# Entry
Amino acid sequence: MKLLLVMAVFAVLASIMTPARAEPVVADVSTHLVAITTGFTGTEVLVFGATDGEGDVAVVVRGPEREEVVRRKERLAGIWIHGESFHFARVPSFYAVAANKPLAEIAQPPVLARHQIGLENLRVAAEGRENEPEHKAFTQALVRLKQEQGLFPGKIGNVQFLGNQLFRATVAFPANVPVGTYTVEVFLLRKGEVAGAQTAPLVISKIGLGADIFLFAHRDAPIYGAIAIVMALVAGSGAAFLFRKA
# Structure
C-alpha cells in the first residue's frame, strides 16, 4: 500500500515538472516524524522526488549539530591516560549520503567540497586549530568513532531512477540515532555542477514513557541522578536481604 502511495506521488511530481517550472528538482520524504518508542530498533525513511530532465542526484542527510571532543590515549608508566584533545563544534550527530553514481563521477572535488557531499568533504570547526598539524588526524578519528557508532555510514547509499525523472533512495537510521531536527538535502547535478537543490525537514523524537524519562533526566539532572542512586541502593539492599534469607 505504501509503495502504491509513493508511486502515486511520483506521478504527480512528474506531471508538474514542466519546462516552465522554476525548480529543476522537487523532493520529499515518506515521513517527517520518526517516533522513538520503547523497543525501537531503527528505521528507514524513503526520499523521493522528480527532476525536470536527465541528471545525477545526490542525497545528504544531516542530524542536529553538536560539540564533540576527541582525546588521544597515551601510555605513561604502564598506564593509559588521556593525552592531547581536540574540541570540534557544529558536528552533525548523523551524516549519510546516497547517489545514483560514485561521487567522483557526478562532480569534481571542488563542487563536492563546496556542498559537503561525502564524508571526506565534511567540514567541522576545531576552535581555530584547523591549521595545526594534528587537525587532520583528529578529524579522521572523529569520523572513525562516528562510523563505529553507526552514525556516519561509510558506504554511499543508492539513488534509484525510475525512468529519466523519478528517483528514490532509502536512508537507514540505527537504533541509537540521536533525537532532534534533521535536514535532507537533495542535489541535482548536471555536467559536474549543481543545477538545483531542495531541502526537506525530518524530526526524530522520543514519545511515551521513554520520552518522559529522557526529558526529566535532561531537565532535572541532579534530581534524576539522586533518584537513580537511591533506587540502586534500594535494589542492592533488597538483593543482599534475599541472599541472607536464602
